[in-house]
Each structure stands twice: as structure tokens, then as C-alpha cells.
Amino acid sequence: MTDQAPTPSEGPVPYSGPDRVLSGVQPSGDLHLGNYLGALKKFARLQHEIPTFIFVADYHAITVWQEPAKLKQQVREIAAAYLATGLDPKVATIFAQSAVPEHAELAWIFNCVARLGWLDRMTQFKEKSGKHKERSSVGLYTYPVLQAADILAYKATKVPVGDDQKQHLELTRDIAQKFNNDFAAPGFFPLPEPLTQGPGARVMSLRDGAAKMSKSDPSDYSRINLTDDADAIAQKIRKARTDAEPLPETAEGLEGRAEAKNLVGIYAALAGKAEAEVLAEYAGQGFGAFKPKLADLAVAVMGPIGGEMRRLLSDPGEIDRVLTDGAARARAIAAPTLAEVKALVGFWGA
Ligand code: AQP
């Protein structure tokens, strides 16, 4: 028995298909400002430039325990967040991952392409499994392989994600490249690019400038949720950890001041400005003056999103129609890809 495909590696042949965007968010808790700035905000812009597929990652969510009675509602909440942050279901394809079984089937094939050594290097598994790795689900370990299937089922070329996902994107590229080599199909899968540029690619916790803002942080004061009202947003910013120094004139002056850098970065991302512009405006001022300005801006941007989410969630029928229609449109792309893959692998009936 060999663990190597016999096909020799061919020189890289560029993918020549159309550009497509794909990304998703797990229905594993309240969405926060980091998810919005790192991911959702970019989706709304990209949909007008490139065909865009955005899914609710419910297969990914169950890599850690999810209450069955709540999961469906959590899926609707993410879909509501997509719509409330500007995704248009007539333009973008919006769907639930579990409604497109091709993702799971392709993931199995990719499990047989990816190497254990590749997965062993994934830092997110190490962080999420913590000290009790042997008690983690197998799904949590192979999560990046499913992510590769999510992307490549649509032959997506661009993946808007936060900075934390860069390593997983590299794995997707490795899987795509190895599949193309192993099955003598040069250029069959594209090597997708992560779109992580811009302010907001890595929003940090409001309580700890060294930890990323995360849904699973036990402290609600560590993040601003998309559904927080104006009072909660202002209070969380008021209580955000900072230092006693005034804001510097240049970005270099923020080095070694993680919490200060984070708040300036959040302001810049929300205002659509560069960090340097924010500093030019507030240099010399302390956080007593800066925080209320940041709170006003955050309330102005986030408040309407929360309101629209509440309106959408009051009529789940509308969200369900969007997801049903999206799943049919998604399958129309993913099913032919999977059929091609099965033929290349040599399966009976393919
Ligand atoms: N702090 C962040 N800054 C910028 N982008 C972020 N993203 C997540 N946190 C930040 C981006 O949001 C998208 C969706 O993430 P996800 O829900 O699929 O999973 P995640 O990255 O694991 O997000 P969380 O909030 O940290 O969830 P938990 O706590 O459940 O693990 C991705 O594009 C991600 O990069």
C-alpha cells in the first residue's frame, strides 16, 4: 500500500475559469464587530464586483456541541446578519451549508488528498482544542479540509476572511494543487486567494489587546455584538481596556500599545479611513475624549444593523425563502463540480 499518488507533478497550469467569491460564518453564537469588519462588510461590497456565494457554516458549527433546539434559529440569525449588512439575495447566493450535501461529499475526497502533517500544523485546532485535544471531535481536526471543500466546490478564486483564516486558506491551496497533480487535471481547481487586506482584518478583544475578539470569549464585555443596542455599545467602549497615554501622531507610536492600537483600528475601519487619518485627527487627546467619539461612530454604524436584524428575525419566513432559493442556486454550481471530481477520481457511475 502506498500513500503517494503515482502521478508526477506537472508544472503549474493557471486556472482559467471565472472569478468567484465564497465565504461563510459559523452559527455558533452572537456575531460581533470582528466578524463584521473582518468578513461581512467585505461581502456586501464584493457581491457587486464578482459572483458571490455566502453560506451559513452549520456543518462547521457542530465541530463543537450545538444545542439541536437552537441551531436552526442560529442559522437564521446569521442569514439575518448577512441581509442586514447589505447582502442582496438577488445578487449574491446565500445558503445554509447543510442544505448543499456536495460540501460534505467533496470534503471526504479531500480528506484522502490532504496529509496528516498538514493538519498537524493548523494553529486554530491547537487553540480551540486546548489542553484536552483527545476529547475534541474529529470534525474539529478536519475542519480546514471541509473549508477547502466549501471553497473549491464553487471553484472560488477569492475568499474574504479575517486574518485568523489565512493558514486555512493556505491549506486549501495545497489541497487544490495536490488534487490537480494527483488526478492529472492541471488547472482544474483554482488556487484561491484570501482577501484579508484593510483595517478590521484582525479586531482584538476589548478586554485584552493580545486576544482576538471572539464569539466564544466568556466575557460579553470583550466584544460588541451586532445585536447590542446603543447603550450596550457605548458602555462596552467606555469600559474597554486602554492605557493612560494620549494618542500619538503616527502609527509607529502605537507599537507596544495593543489596546490603544485596537481602538484606533476599530475607529478607522468603521469610518472607512486609514489609521494615519484617525491619528491626525485625535493626536494628543486621551481616551477620555476619544472613547465617546468612537462610541458615537460605532452606534451610528452598528445600530441600524441590529435594528434590521430584529425586523428580519420577526418574520423567519422571509429568511427561509432566501435560504431555500440560495441552496438551489448553490447546488446548481456545486453538483457539476462534484460530478467532475468523481469522474477524475474514477468512481463507478461517475
Ligand atoms: N476578531 C476578528 N477580527 C476580524 N475578523 C474576524 N473573524 C472572526 N473573528 C474576527 C472573521 O469572521 C469570519 C467568520 O468567523 P467564524 O464565525 O466562521 O469563525 P471564527 O473565526 O472562529 O470566529 P469567532 O468569532 O472567533 O468564533 P468562535 O469564538 O466560535 O471561534 C471569518 O472570516 C473570520 O476570519
What brief labels describe this structure?
binds adenosine-5'-tetraphosphate, 350 residues, 51% helix, three-stranded parallel sheet, single chain, Rossmann fold, Tyrosyl-Transfer RNA Synthetase, 5 strands, mainly alpha
Rounded mean pLDDT score: 94
Give the C-alpha Rg: 21 Å
Q: How many strands, what sense, and barrel or not for the largest sheet?
A: 3 strands, parallel
Order of helices and strands: EHEHHEHHHHEHEHHHHH
Query: Widest sheet: strand order?
Result: 1-2-3
Instruction: Report the count of strand segments.
Output: 5
Shape designation: globular
Low-confidence stretches: none
Structural class: mainly alpha
Number of domains: 2
Bound molecules: adenosine-5'-tetraphosphate
The name CATH uses for the topology of the largest domain is Rossmann fold
What name goes with the CATH superfamily of the largest domain? HUPs
- So how many helices? 13
Helix content: 40-55%
Strand content: 5-15%
Assigned CATH architecture of the largest domain: 3-Layer(aba) Sandwich
**Top CATH class of the largest domain:** Alpha Beta
State the end-to-end CA separation: 25 Å
